[in-house]
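Fold sample X.
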Amino acid sequence: MNELIDNIKVIKMNSWVDCYFKKVLDLKNKEYTNSVLSTLLWLPNRVIYIVGKYILIFGVFIIIVAYFEIPLGVASTVAIMKVLEQIQGNLGYFSYCYRIYSKFALSSKRIEDFLQCDEIEDFLKDHCNQADTELAISIEKSNFFWGFDYISDEDIKQFKEKKDKQAKEQSNKEAGLVQSEEEDKTSANITLDDRIVLKSVNLKVRRGEFVAIIGDVGSGKSSLLGAVLGEMLYFDDSVLDKYKNVTLDFKNDLEQTKQLTDEINECRKQASLNSKTRIAINGTVSLVEQKPFILNKTIRDNILFGEDLDETKYNRVVGACELGKDLELLAGGDLTEIGEKGINLSGGQKARVSIARAVYADADIVLMDDPLSALDAHVKRRVFDQVCCGELAGKTRLLVTHAVDFLDRVDRILVLEEGRITLNGSYDELKAEPYFAKIISTLQKSKSADADNESSSEKSDSDKPKTEAKNYMSSEGTKITDDDDKCEVTWTTYWKYLAYLKYTLVILALSMGVTVIGDLITMNNEYSVLQWVKEYSKTNDPNYSGMISLIFIAFCLLIVDLVRDFFDTWQNYIIEKRLFSDMISKVMNASIPLYFDRSQSGTILQRLNTDQPSASKYCAGHIKWAVSMMCQMATTLAIVSYYVPSILILFPACV
């Protein structure tokens, strides 16, 4: 459901609503089936709970009468029955504790998997702030990778079960029982060298230098920024040479692969501890991600990001990032609330907000992971001029980009191929390289096209007199999210809920009727026990046949309780299926600007995962529970008042 809500815009744009609606209902039907099976597995516990109660009571009374010959009265009998019921109720919590333990074991397994992941190796990174140092970034000749996937014992168990199933299918194919299909010939065998993302990286960046990083897709450009930030794991050359040709078979031998990865990790960690500092960063760092990180707050809050507001600086940054026209179109200006994950902003707007945040942070080193790719051509040129070469002038800048039309304006260019820095130098130094032949032709075409398309706009801009920086700060903002957590549940709401149930009310009524019958049988059993004790106190002759008949009535109570469970399961299935189907249909067909832009995904998921089960299961269950409690209170009061009429005097005071 989380992925469905996050990608609802794509689903609607491709008219996949009906398709995904059917898929969600199919998954929900499987969940209903598992829920029914869980109820069936819980029946033995109910049998033991109901039958065991009366067997315990009757056994205690028979032992008291037959072996100890202790005289029993009505008062002592009622006291013994209530004590035994209290003991049984406490023992019933053991099964509940087992369910809690099962959930705890599952949660512990997930936490364990998370904690088993590789730790960030901060000891290999030296972060300082020294103004007299020439280098801003220094990476000694190093190898980096993102770590191995953690393989748990449960993963190996599931892998073996899958392999056994595949072996059976293969044997059936060979026997001709199953039509042979084209097998998947793709291999999951990789060597350790294939897992190393950055190889023999040796990088020196001077303070104030503007470096562009280019390369093919998957060459390691974004990973290089991750290495600068210290987010990647170091791999020593000695360990790499030792295990370089080791094959990791994630497809056919997961257990052996786990042993190998554990062994390699131990050697790698030991080598890392003995290694010297591999990364040196001099100054503060800010990052512009390729996928912008946007808070569910106002545009101003996203740009400031916790920094103090400097109006002059803020207006200058907003203008340089070409956000002025966007703020003018928004009703609340820079105080307009941004939806979750920036859903009400375009890709270019989110990129410019992220760039403005990095510029306003005024860090010494700015890492930019291809933020210009989301911008239009003319906006990209202006942002590059006003930000990369303007506001950030004098800062150390690393720009990952596919926009080759700006390469002649940077101080240095790094070319990455398969995780290695193959070319390193200025544009004039590298333009003679064969790799740059295509880049140069693209650069010339881009410049001529920009000159033709924008000559008129530049001429008109030059004719306009320069004005002072605008004030982009708004006094009043707009809020798109609705505060729908505050609601009032009145009796009208309950009547609407009952009207929505329609024919399901018949099942609810039958379940309540069976509940009342069960309470009456319980009252009859307790009354019969008291009658048996009363006769025994008079005749001093225990009538065991009467006790046996009471056990038979207890089994009748068990049947009634099972029938009630059947009605409960049936009713919950119908209500939940109908309510979920209606809710998910309305959610998926809701308007994006009127609903999804105004509601956080967590709120929508809470409605579907928490509020919907409460309305389908717990509400009807609480109604039956209230009726059952009233019946039990009435039967208990009737029995006690029959034998002790004076108790009725205290009843008005209790009410």
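Fold sample Y, listed below.
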Amino acid sequence: EIKQFGNPPQFPVEEDKPEEKKDEGKKGKGKKKGKAAKKKSKKKFQWQILEEMNVPKDVLAKFKDPQQWLSYFPPVAIEDLKRLGVMVDWRRSFITTDTNPFYDAFVRWQFNRLKAAGKVVKAKRMCVFSPSNGQPCADHDRAEGEGVQPQEYTLIKIELEKVPESIKNIVKADVPVYLAAATLRPETMYGQTNCWLLPNGEYSVVKMNNGDVFVVSARSALNMSFQELCGNPNKPNILGSIKGEELLGLPLKAPLCKYERVYTMPLLTISMGKGTGVVTSVPSDAPADYAAWMDLKKDNKLRKKYGITEEMVSLDIVPIIDTPLEGASADDRKLPAPYLCKKMKIKSQNAVDKLETAKKECYKISNAKGTMIVEELKGCPVMEAKEKVKASMIANGQAVTYYEPQEKVVARAGNEECVCAMTEQWFLQYGEEKWQKVVADHIDSTLECYNAKAKNMFEFTIGWLKQWACSRTAGLGTLLPWDKDFLIESLSDSTIYMAYYTIAHFVQGGALNGGDYKGNASRIQPEDLTDQVFDYIFADPKKEAEIPTESKIPPETLTKMRKEFLFWYPLDLRVSGKDLIRNHLTMSLYNHAAIWSDNADMWPRSFYTNGHVMINSEKMSKSTGNFLTLEDAINKFGTDACRVALADSGDGLEDANFVQKTADQAILK
């Protein structure tokens, strides 16, 4: 913000559009301006948020240095919690990253143990990636889209039988041009009847690295650039652009299609923020395709508007899958989309909610119980056919594998939308069969979650959480001990820190970052915390532990540290947010199971998870201004009233609601 807007920054001021009011006299008699336009900044910038949090103006600019955040906020938080009357053993407080060399040593030991156990590997994998930061965007680096993973699509190459002059002028070569449609269901390509485009959508004509020319959305082209498909990272090879309406009514050759020729047609519900903006149509098995197809067949005026002839929509719907829907006849099972639309009384493509329900039902039953009825794959289960068809189409040059995030992900840094990129880095092997099983068994048999929904969330997470990118190339964190080109990301370094709490007061010196330890003979030095020292302190109580003979730490101190650990462990209770079940808390179970692999008695006994905090029944958000700091709440209502309002706000999985009126009433009582 300082680089863009100066110091102090001069943020852009936007004009509100004036409100339009209908003439109160007669209906439809025109409009007139309402309130005068107002000038204000629509966006909340970080500088403004810090100002609202009462950060002194003379230190605001210092926050461009990441270390400022670590030095400024932890002491403020401690002071606020003391004012609230929270009872804490502050001697055990610390901050993470290499700013605290003692915790840094603890993380290095943990990762050396994980690597020795084969739990960390280096590989090329698809990751959610921040283009401007040039590295994977982990959950805690996201302003939007926590928990979102890469989604694999199959890009179907639908060739333009007749290339319009506008594209010829862009390509400047006599080469095939393909509409690239992203699909999760390649096995349904036998049932194509047409291809959908968004009439007012802006499409890019791009040259792929293999020489093909694709027509896709600019957003998907950017994703492709990070997947070695189109141009170079962050620089897709975009030759030009064209409106969707210019491509409507064109003849196509669609791979695996029963018909030699199909056509491009308009679909107004296409999102250019999902897939490629090109959608292949299978009305036999996709309710939305069926509804839109029937709209075009029935509505001559709609066809005429977009240059679609009656002949183009004269094709019969092709049955391809036997889907055993409840109540469906033998014939209906072969055309599940028309059956569901009729059953649910869906009249047009505008019934968006009903169509979404129908789609989920159709896809769920088809994937679980459907069998193919096309000759080449007759009797083959749908899930098996999916992989066979995908592999065959890719091998035959009819399709390409493509990835993008399952949902929109926005990075905190730069506030930009993330892509999917193939990156070489270090991964934790979550999801590895044996490791996964012991953790799943612990969740099922031992872990107390205090809420059945929370338990279900853990069981769901253990099912999908796979290889986790635990490294990055920039930012704050501990360097990987064996590969100092990488830092350990902020969730991966915080999975067993509960063990560090037990000994923190021996090493921290009463300072969050370890304080002034150099040259102080009475202090343990960071370099004294060797892997051998940690192996002794945190050794399995069932095994004989020997004090490392070469340690500079006095034996009696080491003995006390080990006794302290054994007194507190296993972890009886960890209280955290419900959003961390899908990463931090499940990762904590995994890492405990790896570090203390031979003794499940050392793994966490219980996790209590709660929701977020609302203010007066509205989401608490710095960016919208609806937030209240603990300091402001105490200053406004006093400690006792705040505690009453907090106690009344709720503490379950549902979001708690801090009601200011409750705090006011507590003062009056």
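Sample Y note: The chain has a mean pLDDT of 91.
Also: The CA atoms of residues 206 and 487 lie 35 Å apart.
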